């Protein structure tokens, strides 16, 4: 006998499962005591009915499982759920690799990578090539997003879903292109400020700006590039956090009272009067990125404004230093100092500045350790001389030029440059004027020799440059002279002039560098001590070319006229060749064009 059972699905699109049950032989009843037999053996109609139901249920379950398993296998075929599309391209049922290949090919066929970006910024309509702003569809990320579109098995089996492409753009390049194209539609905001002219505070009131927001612009482009419509990029109004009213209030309640009277600074070692001019130089109103104005006292500026008034109270810490004794560098102990607690002084001074009376503040002295200790120096690997360079001068030590060379050599002697640090000659010596011990001597100004304070320091600069050059240290900034002088090597030389022309080098090694200077009556020498890294550093010169002859110029006689014989002009190349382990590891080219120095004659046809 054949039986048909039918499951009744709920009202959805799941398939109807039809199951066929098997028929079984009918057991004949025992002729003897059928009731007893049925009762004792568990046979008869009841037993057969139960057995039939068990077998029927087992058959239905097996068939259902088999059917559902087939449906699941169909639904989960591939990495991307069936019915999934990206920009109209069917990716469902494919493996990740196949989906990437198919989507990339379809994008190329549709010309998507070259689809122009059309944007509207304010009143301007613009168009960019995608490559100009780093705009593209990230195919792999898009397929990954498609694979995660639906995880439910029934949803994977039926229905459809469109997945948006993952679009990438270079936000910085886009912003630069939009700013250039937007033109005068944007305006910078005015940052609030309070500045002092002498002891008079001047308010700078804020003004809102209109600007592009790089992140918002990028998001708008990612969302709208492939929509077929121009993308509207918003212009955002930026308003500083501190208003004009708040700026005026700061002027009235802090800036103006701050410079109305001096402040007395009391310490355990005595008192110092801080005049209004020093307060004006040190009271700063700083705006953060949001345009919020915050007042503070800059103690470094305050110290500079007070000059030597703090000398009786503070003791500067002294760094440990290196000296060369018996042909070997040795560290010499520094010492701690005592200085005002900058953070506390800044806070306490700011608190009393709005007051009209009781303008006193207590300064606390604390021990200040030197930045460079003997222990640190000892571990820097300053153990041997790695280079030395000497230049010669005339006139003996009595000439102002020679005295300037000796003075700057003393200022630099013993300087230690730590690994990774950049040394600036101007930064190290500061202004080289009369107060610092420098004298008038000839300098080159506007192409001719004239008297000037500090003349001769360029010779020391050249000597230092060559010493660092032959030590293999990194050249950061130098400028050769306009004219070539025979006392210097061509090209490999440097001038200096406060504050515009500087000489800088960087210690690009893992060891410390000690600058050791010495002078005689006719020479200056700079030695560099460290740990030797290279086998050799040498210079190879190319031939001089484009040689020009000097012309004769007659000048008005007088103390400011310095005659000269004139020097040829020329161009030349110099190559720094650095060897290590027997091989050339670096070859650097230096080129300079020297002008022909005129022959200056004091007096003559122009008298």
Q: What's the assembly state of these chains?
A: single chain
Number of helices: 15
Outline type: extended
* Main sheet overview: 4 strands, antiparallel
Structural class: alpha+beta
Strand percent estimate? 25-35%
- Number of E-state strands: 38
Strand order of the largest sheet: 24-32-31-25
- Which residue ranges are poorly predicted, with pLDDT under 50 across at least 5 consecutive positions? 1-43, 60-75
Proportion in helices: 25-40%
The pLDDT mean sits at 85
Distance between termini? 142 Å
Report the radius of gyration as a whole number of Å: 43 Å
Domain YoaR-like putative peptidoglycan binding: 244-361
Transmembrane segments: 54-77
Pfam families: PG_binding_4, VanW
Protein name: Vanomycin resistance protein VanB
Structure report:
By secondary structure, this protein is α+β, with helices and mostly antiparallel strands. Among the domains are: 73 residues; 128 residues, Roll (Ubiquitin-like (UB roll)), CATH 3.10.20; 223 residues, no CATH class. 28% of the residues lie in helices and 30% in strands. It is built from 15 helices and 38 strands. Strands 24-32-31-25 form a four-stranded antiparallel sheet. Strands 33, 34, 36 and 37 form a four-stranded antiparallel sheet that branches. Strand 27 and strand 28 form a beta hairpin. Helix 6 packs across helix 7 and helix 13 crosses helix 15. The longest helix has 31 residues. It is extended, with a radius of gyration of 43 Å. The N terminus is likely disordered.
């Amino acid at each position: 006998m054949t039986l048909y059972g039918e499951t009744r699905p709920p009202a959805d699109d799941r398939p109807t499962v039809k199951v066929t049950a098997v028929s079984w032989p009918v057991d004949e009843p025992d002729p003897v005591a059928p009731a007893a037999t049925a009762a004792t053996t568990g046979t008869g109609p009841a037993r057969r009915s139960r057995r039939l139901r068990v077998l029927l249920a087992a058959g239905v379950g097996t068939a259902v499982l088999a059917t559902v398993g087939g449906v699941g296998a169909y639904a989960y075929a591939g990495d991307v759920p069936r019915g999934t599309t990206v920009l109209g391209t069917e990716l469902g049922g494919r493996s990740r690799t196949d989906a990437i290949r198919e989507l990339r090919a379809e994008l190329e066929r549709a010309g998507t990578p070259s689809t122009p970006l059309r944007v509207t910024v304010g009143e301007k309509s613009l168009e960019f090539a995608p490559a100009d702003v780093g705009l593209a569809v990230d195919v792999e990320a898009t397929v990954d997003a498609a694979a995660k579109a639906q995880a439910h098995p029934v949803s994977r089996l039926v229905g459809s879903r469109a997945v948006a492409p993952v679009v990438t753009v270079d936000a910085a390049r886009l912003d630069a292109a939009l700013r250039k194209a937007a033109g005068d539609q944007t305006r910078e905001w005015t940052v609030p400020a309070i500045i002092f002219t002498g002891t008079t505070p001047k308010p700078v009131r804020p003004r809102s700006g209109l600007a592009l927001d790089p992140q918002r612009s990028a998001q708008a482009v990612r969302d709208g590039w492939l929509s077929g419509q121009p993308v509207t990029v918003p212009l955002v109004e930026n308003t500083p956090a501190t208003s004009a009213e708040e700026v005026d209030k700061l002027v009235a309640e802090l800036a103006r009272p701050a410079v109305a009277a001096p402040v007395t600074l009391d310490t355990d070692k005595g008192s110092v009067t801080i005049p209004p001019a020093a307060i004006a130089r040190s009271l700063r109103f700083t705006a953060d990125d949001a345009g919020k104005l915050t007042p503070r006292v800059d103690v470094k500026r305050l110290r500079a404004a007070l000059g030597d008034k703090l000398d009786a109270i503070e003791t500067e810490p002294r760094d440990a230093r290196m000296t060369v004794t018996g042909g070997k560098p040795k560290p010499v102990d520094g010492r701690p100092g005592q200085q005002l607690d900058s953070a506390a002084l800044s806070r306490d001074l700011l608190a009393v500045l709005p007051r009209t009376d009781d303008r006193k503040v207590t300064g606390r002295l604390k021990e200040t350790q030197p930045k460079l200790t003997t222990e640190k120096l000892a571990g820097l690997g300053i153990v041997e001389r790695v280079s030395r360079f000497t230049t010669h001068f005339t006139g003996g030590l009595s000439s102002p030029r020679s005295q300037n060379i000796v003075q700057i050599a003393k200022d630099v002697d013993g300087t230690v440059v730590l690994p990774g640090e950049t040394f600036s000659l101007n930064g190290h010596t500061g202004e080289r004027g009369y107060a610092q011990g420098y004298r008038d001597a000839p300098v080159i100004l506007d192409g001719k020799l004239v008297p000037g304070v500090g003349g001769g320091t360029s010779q020391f600069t050249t000597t230092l440059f060559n010493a660092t050059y032959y030590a293999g240290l990194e050249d950061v900034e130098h400028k050769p002279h306009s004219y070539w002088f025979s006392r210097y090597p061509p090209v490999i030389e440097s001038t200096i002039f406060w504050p515009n022309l500087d000489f800088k080098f960087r210690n690009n090694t893992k060891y410390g560098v000690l600058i050791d200077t010495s002078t005689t009556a006719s020479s200056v020498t700079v030695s560099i001590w460290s740990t030797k890294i290279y086998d050799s550093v040498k210079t190879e010169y190319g031939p001089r070319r484009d040689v020009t002859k000097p012309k004769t110029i007659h000048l008005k006689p007088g103390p400011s006229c310095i005659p000269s014989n004139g020097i040829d002009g020329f161009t030349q190349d110099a190559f720094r060749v650095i060897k290590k382990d027997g091989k050339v590891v670096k070859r650097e080219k230096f080129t300079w064009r020297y002008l022909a120095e005129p022959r200056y004659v004091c007096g003559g046809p122009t008298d």
